[in-house]
């Protein structure tokens, strides 16, 4: 059985000893503040080291047999990344990370549930007890509300900015995790620009968009004649990015046969072109991103555990837009300015009512979807509520037809809107995978890429 459980009375901090007193960081408007979240502890009841306990030191805490967990329990029935607890508005939320033997909470198999103080978890043959402690953990929150192109004032966003600032100050490999459209590629570029490598190149390789057999040559290059069609020598992205940063987007899609090759680059800082005899050194910083939880991929043996270890030196999670509605006024203003909205349009699209509507929408496509919606509002010159996307096709067509415009111009605008809607829906249907979308739509992949870039649906 799998379900989501909430403790009674969750939703607002209760006063009992087992409730979360403060799940939101404090002092959110003040510069340089750090937030506080309630601390908790896990104690092993049955397992390899009974009595051993571990306190949380941030707002999330993971348990598993892999060395990157907060509580490492080395026992064969415990998965590498077994489960995670995150303190949120409602309490301490437990998530099973697709573990092999599952997570059993007080006798019930759960995937997602809220914990009470004294809850007993069974992970394979190990059992642990969860308790809240009276102390709090302080979280580091940036005093900035912008980082590169990204803006946001919510504590979760500013906590991610704090990590991005730290990442920029170092040369460590970074793993960015977040749903599609949350701003991962902008974050990667902003980290590069704020780093000592800013004057060097920044190269993006979308590991999900390039067929596996071409990806190796795209990344590492090839020698002339190394395979059929290799009519001349080609420099790969790692060599091209020398002295700068390479952004490996959708790293979760990296084919199994390329994973040890990337691992070697990260470990030894050297690459070998396809068909070459020897290795050559490269000086490149790697930032990777994924919309998946790579820990579940590691559990399922689809992603190498040692590669995850090397990539996640700094792991930054960019939350979904629905988890940070406080960011919406700033983000909307930034987007409207970028579209060149005039002061009247800005005023019409920043009324408290309209902003509240935006803040209550689910935005499965995150900031990208918000941007598309705002663009439509500008085109239609109307502060449409987000669910107005459902308006009938006829109403949309009617609003596009403006007989005061020359025919050619009216047609161009209508086509423009159609194209964007089509591409947006196509990408959503195929989970953002461009190659797959191109095949399904019977389009050339390179042409689809060009269209996506024109509509700013891809960078
Ligand atoms: N915090 C933010 N402030 C302003 N704009 C943002 C923010 N986050 C995202 N955006 C905008 O949203 C759009 C999508 O961002 P981006 O392409 O970086 O997302 P992504 O997570 O890399 O998406 P995908 O996984 O689909 O590649 C961009 O236009 C970006 O500028």
From TrEMBL:
This is Sigma-54 dependent trancsriptional regulator, Fis family. One of its GO terms (molecular function) is DNA binding. Keywords: ATP-binding, DNA-binding, Nucleotide-binding, Transcription, Transcription regulation. Residues 150-379 form the Sigma-54 factor interaction domain. GO terms for biological process: regulation of DNA-templated transcription. InterPro entries: AAA+_ATPase, AAA_lid_NorR, FHA_dom, Homeodomain-like_sf, P-loop_NTPase, Sigma_54_int, Sigma_54_int_dom_ATP-bd_2, Sigma_54_int_dom_CS. Residues 23-35 have a biased composition (Low complexity). It comes from the Bacteria. Residues 61-110 form the FHA domain. It comes from Myxococcus xanthus (strain DK1622). Residues 1-38 are annotated as: Disordered. Pfam families: AAA_lid_14 (PF25601), FHA (PF00498), Sigma54_activat (PF00158). SMART domains: AAA, FHA. The keyword ATP-binding applies. PROSITE patterns: FHA_DOMAIN (PS50006), SIGMA54_INTERACT_2 (PS00676), SIGMA54_INTERACT_3 (PS00688), SIGMA54_INTERACT_4 (PS50045).
